[in-house]
Amino acid sequence: MYLRVVILTCTTWSQATETETDCVYGTDSSFPDFLQCISEERRVKRDAPDHDAYGHPCHAYTPLIQPERRVSNRISELTADALCDRTLKRRWYRFDGPSGGAMPETCVQEFSCGTHAPIWMDGTHPTEYGRAVDRTVCMSLAGECCQRRWYIRVANCGDFYSYLLTDTPGCFMAYCAGTEEECPEGLSSITGFTPGCSDNFPPLEGSVALSLSGAGHEVAFYCDFEGPLPSSASIEVEWFVDGPTSGRGSTGLYPIWTDHMKGRRRSSLTEGRWMGKMGSDIYCKMRAKWDDRTGVPSPAIVSEKYFAGIKIMHTTIKVSEAGEEAMIQMQPTVPIKCLPQFDETCKVTVELAHDQNVQDRKCVDGNMRQVVFGDCKVDFTPENWGQVQNVSVRAVRDFYQDGNKKMAVRFKPTYSTLTSQLWNNYELPGVEVLASDAPTKMCSSTGDPHYNTFDGFYYHVYLEGEFVMYKHNKMPLQINTRLEQCGKVVTCNCAVAVMAADDVVVIDRCNRRHRNLAFGKSFPEGWKTLHRHALQQGEKFTEGLKIFEYDEGRKYTIHLPTGAYLDFLVGKNWINLHLHASSDDWQSTVGLCGTFDGDKGNDLLHPDGVTVGHAEHGAACGESEDVCDFARAWRVPKNESFFKSVVEVPLRDQQFFNEGQQYCKCEKQGGASKVVCNYNYDVQNCQAMKAQEEGHEKTHSLLVKTRGSELNSMASMSFQSDFAARRRKRSVADIEVENRVNDDQDSDNLDYFQMEFDYNEEFVGQVPTWPTPRGITEDYARQYCNDIILRSQAAAVCGRHIMDQLEVITDNCITDIKVTDDLTWAMSSLDTFTSECVTEINTKASLWENQAWQHQPVESGEEDNRPQTIAERLLDHVCPNDCSRQGVCARGKCVCQPGVTGSDCSIRIRQMPKIVHVSGGGMCDIRLRPCRKMQILGEGFVNATDLMCKFTAADGEIITTQVAFETFEEISCFLPENPVTFNGDPATGEGSAYRTYFLTIHQGPYYTQQTPIIVYNSACMQCSLDGYPTCTRKSDSCLVNGHCFAAGETHPTQCCLECNPIENEGEFTVKTCKLLCSVLIAWQYNVCYSYSFKATDDFALLPDQNSYAVAIGDTFSLSIHAIHPRACGMTYHVEATSETSSFIRTDRDGATIEIDTGAKDAHYFQVTATDECGSETQTTYNVFVMPKGEIPVHHVTQQQVPRPGASRNCTDNNSPRFDEISVTMSVVHDELVPLDFMATEDDVDDALQYYVLRPTSAIKVASDGSLSYRAPTTSAEDVLTYVAEDLCGAQARLEVRMATAPCPCSAGQRCIPMEGMPRGNMHYDCLTVYY
Fold this sequence. Notes:
Layout: E1 2-14, E2 19-22, E3 36-45, H1 51-54, E4 62-64, E5 91-95, E6 117-122, E7 132-141, E8 144-156, E9 161-165, E10 173-175, E11 207-213, E12 220-226, E13 233-242, E14 257-261, E15 266-269, E16 280-290, E17 301-302, E18 306-308, E19 310-312, E20 316-320, E21 326-332, E22 347-355, E23 371-373, E24 377-380, E25 389-395, E26 405-411, E27 415-417, E28 431-436, E29 442-446, E30 450-452, E31 458-460, E32 465-472, E33 477-485, E34 491-500, E35 503-508, E36 513-514, E37 531-536, E38 546-550, E39 555-559, E40 565-570, E41 575-580, E42 589-590, E43 619-620, H2 625-633, E44 649-650, E45 663-669, E46 672-678, H3 686-693, E47 703-705, E48 716-717, E49 721-723, E50 727-730, E51 735-736, H4 748-752, E52 755-756, H5 778-790, H6 793-798, H7 803-820, H8 826-843, H9 870-875, E53 887-890, E54 893-896, E55 900-901, E56 907-908, E57 914-918, E58 923-925, E59 933-939, E60 947-953, E61 958-961, E62 963-967, E63 970-974, E64 994-1003, E65 1006-1007, E66 1011-1016, E67 1021-1024, E68 1030-1033, E69 1037-1040, E70 1043-1046, E71 1057-1060, ...
Parallel strand pairs: 4-5, 6-10, 20-28, 31-43, 37-47, 58-66, 75-81, 82-88
Antiparallel strand pairs: 1-2, 1-3, 5-9, 6-7, 7-8, 8-9, 11-12, 12-15, 13-14, 13-16, 16-17, 16-18, 19-21, 21-25, 22-24, 22-26, 22-27, 23-25, 26-28, 29-30, 29-41, 30-31, 32-33, 32-42, 33-34, 34-35, 35-37, 36-52, 38-39, 39-40, 40-41, 44-50, 45-46, 48-51, 49-50, 53-54, 55-56, 57-59, 59-63, 60-61, ...
Helix pairs in contact: 5-7, 5-8, 7-8
């Protein structure tokens, strides 16, 4: 038999919780009018078992033990802690307690049962055991007994009733249960409630105190009675736990243990009796009972409650996208005790499991997050158990206007290591996080240029120079823009520099003049081609400062660490800038973009923070002095420019952008936790993440470093530092090429810093009148602009969403045409309109919502098959430059019409590419760089497979090489392999001093004009490209078998041969050796002598003291080394002139003699050193081994006399020591590695000196005495003896093995030691450095 049931699903709004909820179930249609319900027919089998869905009502129930639910519990209308069943889950419940366990069957007045709107049962309870029946419940509200009603189920379980309940529509509404009342004052009963109240009980007067004990390895509670003990009676102590038990209701009504005390005042609750009750209030009650068991117990005396567990200090915290982080604070109230065998080594771990119940927006990695955390777990130990531990919570800067959000932060059940079971599976209550949204807006500088501030004030700037577009008041963030004349009457954007901390990203297309070169010679007039670099001035590049490239270099986006980002769009004759503010910018900006505080009236704020200009909306500098004064106030002096090789920045005396602070995503995936941490998780910009995933980031490939004098082996930047109390100043550093470039980099990056940006500070543009010189009228310009904008694909997508911006953008378009007399400038306004469209789509959260993929994050490496959101579908129809109206937009890419190509369909296929400039003017000196490729600047380049470079040699040979595409205006051509050599060995083959080519760039069947190229060696060749490429030999050089050498240069492999063009310009000449020799001698007592002197044809190793005395049993070694000024190879020979037991070792670096000092003896050695020129010297060394007492007093001993200059008593001296006896360091060719090993010594007043025995030329000594090792340029292994010596001459020695290997990076990259990693372990970054 079936019953037709209509289930009404109703939706209502609860003002108390501000949430929308499905709320009421029933078959009655008499619902209030404000409830909007839809009906759904379902067929439910009448005799279906009640335990199918929710279990058996008499067994699978949740206890609700709250005496506060009794009918007689009246509360005030203002009571804030009234009962609320808004969060009840639909399941079986049993009411239990001394006031009764049955719901009332008659009307209950408002503000009864401990709540505002009590709920009672309109009907009688069933009498048949185990049978569940339907009943109606009513809610008393607004003076009505049954203001709302819905169905429940109730079952008779013999001794109690079980109710199938659901949550209430809102707060404060709760189910009533129990009709008994508390005993009147002076009476008592077994339960404390009616019935059975009596005055027959023993008196009990005093107080009860609860205390915690952590003695030993267990935690116990004590309940102490303070007062007179009753006679003829005993005290009954009941221990209670009031709190969650496995998350299912309260257990505070029934005691967990009862203790009967006779003659005692203290009751103990041992750890085993309250095991599993963590997270509850523990308290005790004492009542007196007659010994003869007559009467009733006395009224109870109750102790204070003690919360046992981990206290959450604030269960609700608030964070804002524009604010600081907040803290989840946790504090254990119970000592953490280790198991006896693991004393003081245990811990209790609490893990966060963020419930992502508001992941409603799609992003690259699955979804966006509202908040992130400083960590995903907290460890409590026996040492810190009473301390508050913090987990930081930060609102994610997400660039969405998505309103305020609530989310739950939950905790996984605790787990402990090496402790008792007391803490295991303890589940902390959740924390509610309220994340408030913050505004984000866009500031634009477009066309010639028109400024639209963050707050929407619109004006025009017609001045030249460098200006502060944006500056953050609290963080070291600033954006400067350059304006130059782009016609006779106005100016335009031509460059931007973005500074974060001490680093700067530059994109420059201004008209630049070279300081040292005449125009038309090596650079085109004004050299206006796009330049980009990322200037690193500190030890590492600022985290979060990034540059991305799009559309073959027509668009760039620079991201700041706060999440703000700047779009830089390159047009034919214009550059548009669109700056998107972060929530961190709210009420914190100044500059040409205004103050971003919602008030247009103060946007013309001057740098003094006081003066505010006042101008009409749409005013222009040239028409309004206030606008001109405002813009001039933000003009940057030339010496403070951001476009220099070294930029003056404030001294960094604090951390910004959460530097060094990682934030984590703490999520649940199935039953497991997923924890991922990163330094920029508090800023999540979907578009940046997508661009990075697609490989458009250019930050590191454009890096220029100005850290110090040793920039790399290619070039150095010198600068002086003048540190004041709060400022760091660096002088302008011109880059000088000191060594040959061994990277495959382009020297034109060096030339950029030799460029000057000239501008006229007195220039003020003026807007002309209609019609233009070409006859364009205002009406025609308006019609043309409307046609361009309104018929665009962006208008079809976003027209109705950004119509409020249309008027301003159209006015910009008309003004651009008016001042330029050029209709193509309308495309600048179309770009602005498109940017507004994209911004509107990206920031409107509702467009990114899609219920079909909520809570379905995409794992790394998996294909994202989720359906597109509305925003994604809209963005598929927005393309760059509206495809130049020569193509259609499909999935965000232009599909060009036949005959045109390019990312925006702007290049005609039959359009011939054009070379504007070749790096170095077409000349490449092999002495300065390898000449493997050349930078080509030009027009009409398309990133296609048919783009190639062709070189025609002087003999007619044609060589085709690869192209490295950079932008639509820049490519790099790989040069042919050529015989022009640098430092080549004439014996290995014939070389070449120069090679000439003619270069053409081919794009399909079309190609550029021929451009002459010369690769040469400047040591002996003087070359020119005037008219025709020619080279002539220099008189002060040698040309040996086609290899170039300058006068005085040494043969590559034979150091005794040099280039002497006076003697022979075609062959090497034997040189006369003039040596500067240095001898370093060391022995056990560590007194080192260094002798340096000039010699003639011969040289001598002649120390003042060549005789030494050593005590029997001491260790003695002698190292001899000669340093040749021209690195000529040295050979050493040692001959013992008497029989001796010693160890002698010689190699190209020197000679080492170690003496056996086991017995009294005399040792004589003759040392001969010979250089490659045949010069030699001989010295005899005498070593006498004797008892210590026979050593003459003028000899130094470590036991008697301290080191010269020391004033220490050496009696009972302790020797220094290293932690190891040997270490091995793996380094790369030519790396400079600090030798900073530290020894320890027990004598705290001692000072250790460090040096290397038998040092070679690879050992470098700085002015401060610090040592370093210069690795050779070939793979080898070197062994050093590193010595630490104290004031008394006692030593410790460390053997250092230096293993040298090639840099593992690819060609064109340099090995840079990783930040924070130990040196000598092959921890390197591969970095391409531009200069």
